[in-house]
Amino acid sequence: MSAETDETVQKTPLNDLHRALGGRMVPFAGYDMPVQFDGIMAEHTHTRASAGLFDVSHMGQVRLVGANADAALESLIPSNMRELKSGKQRYSMFLNDAGGILDDLMITRRDDDLLLVVNAACKDADIAHLQAAMPADVAVVPMPERALIALQGPQAVAVLAGLIPGVDDLTFMTAGGFTWDGADLWISRSGYTGEDGCEISVPEGRVAAFAEALLADDRVKPIGLGARDSLRLEAGLCLYGHDIDTTTSPVEANLVWAMQKRRREAGDFPGGRRILAEIASGPSRRRVGLKPEGRAPIREGAAILDGDGQNVGRITSGGFGPSVGAPVAMGYVASALAEPGTALFAEQRGKSLPMQVVAMPFAPHNYKR
Amino acid sequence: MSDRKYTKEHEWIEVSGSEATIGISDYAQDQLGDVVYVDLPDVGREVEKGAEAAVIESVKAASEVYAPASGEVTARNDALDDNPALVNESAEGDGWFYRMKLSDPSQLDDLMDADAYAKFLETLD
């Protein structure tokens, strides 16, 4: 028996709604989730043109409570927490002692806690990691009673503001508390598509009604995991377990922007010695964007070759970019070959497919700063 | 009266004269979703029944297409190079994959006809 039998597959509070909407359900990170509704291409382009609704309730929401939560969390991540002001959100990652990435996460400071959103596949390990590391005066409080949805796209905030006055005052990577029909919501202006939009934490018992209220707006359509992946890939955003994992450092992954100056100078985080050395002298490999010249998508796992046929890296995400209208990929290559414009090849099904290193994102970000 | 046959892997094959045309079923294209690329066999290639003959790429994933019979490829559908969405629009018509000269026409005997394939699909969901 696999781990994905009916007994062990979990359902989000929106499972019935996904099925009623015709979602094609697949097991993902232990959850029964919709991979698509109308079709990945239509959902992808709808999100970039209007507003797409995503169920991301499988992700972990965790509170850290205690006056020292910020300093304690800094012992696990390379980002500033002490300077983060209430209502501000930040991207970071849990690091292991070798400087590898255990998970990536979003952190928001609220008046009474730090709110963490972590990946579904990592959440049990992340919670255990936090519980082991937090001092006695910092409580780790998982929030299984809350669902999480995302509304993404150029019309997303206008749609939300119609239901929740004031939400349009938020700017990119800020967040606040709101109410809808008596339910308390926590809304951040952020997401995983490269578009403007919000992520909304909702009490699990109210999320179906809230999702239906959003879907009642003609501008909103439900979006599955398939388009979520193609949207984030075009936006150049990492998928944990693929583009970043315990073997990749933040420097290799081009995520040094998530390490603020105080931490970069001090190196006071797990793997600090390796990471500071990589910042100073350059990592041996880097994550880059790759644009195949042909029409064939180049998939995760394909070897990357230089002009002499030498293996110089590996594709970590690849597919068709519906907004780009062509295949797009990312992967790791030897640092000397990481400059945009470098001609490389991917080996797939016995063929050597030409591609070029390009700057990311593939589709421009439309954040409201 | 069509003598189109189907495999359990959702390929179709139809013999006309000395050639057979091969594609994927309408059910298969619906399951795959938006097709963005089809890697077709070159003319002249010998394909073997049950072995990979083509690869179909949807937005999400690559899927292998197996040869429903052995033979030599005599034509490929070049229209799919520029318009792979033809597979979604007309999987059992203009979205055909390739043609071949069968080395052993009796290999088609154990494939399903349209009625049997329709019954087979009912057992899948």
What does this structure look like?
The complex is a heterodimer of chains A (about 375) and B (about 120). Chain A has about 375 residues and is of the alpha+beta class. Among the domains of chain A are: about 15-60 and about 145-235, Probable tRNA modification gtpase trme, domain 1 (Gyrase A, domain 2, 2-Layer Sandwich); about 285-360, Beta Barrel (Elongation Factor Tu (Ef-tu), domain 3). Helices cover about 20% and strands about 35% of the residues of chain A. A 6-stranded mixed β-sheet of chain A has the order 10-11-12-9-3-13. A 6-stranded antiparallel β-barrel of chain A has the order 14-17-16-15-18-19. In chain A, strands 5-6-7-4-8 form a 5-stranded antiparallel β-sheet, covered by helices on one side. In chain A, a hairpin with a 2-residue loop joins strand 18 and strand 19 (about 350-360). In chain A, helix 2 (about 40-50) packs across helix 7 (about 225-235). Residues about 1-5 of chain A have low confidence and may be disordered. With about 120 residues, chain B is α+β, with helices and mostly antiparallel strands. Chain B has a single domain, classed as RNA polymerase II/Efflux pump adaptor protein, barrel-sandwich hybrid domain (OB fold (Dihydrolipoamide Acetyltransferase, E2P)), CATH 2.40.50. Chain B has 4 helices and 9 strands. Chain B has helices at about 25-30, 80, 85-90, 115-120; strands at about 5, 10-15, 20-25, 35-40, 45, 50-60, 60-65, 70-75, 100. In chain B, the strands form 2 sheets. Chain B has a 6-stranded antiparallel β-sheet with strand order 1-2-3-9-8-5. Chain B has a 3-stranded antiparallel β-sheet with strand order 4-6-7. In chain B, a hairpin with a 2-residue loop joins strand 2 (about 10-15) and strand 3 (about 20-25). The model of chain B has no long low-confidence stretch (mean pLDDT about 95). The chains are: A alpha+beta (about 375), B alpha+beta (about 120). The interface between A and B is medium-sized, with 18 and 14 residues.
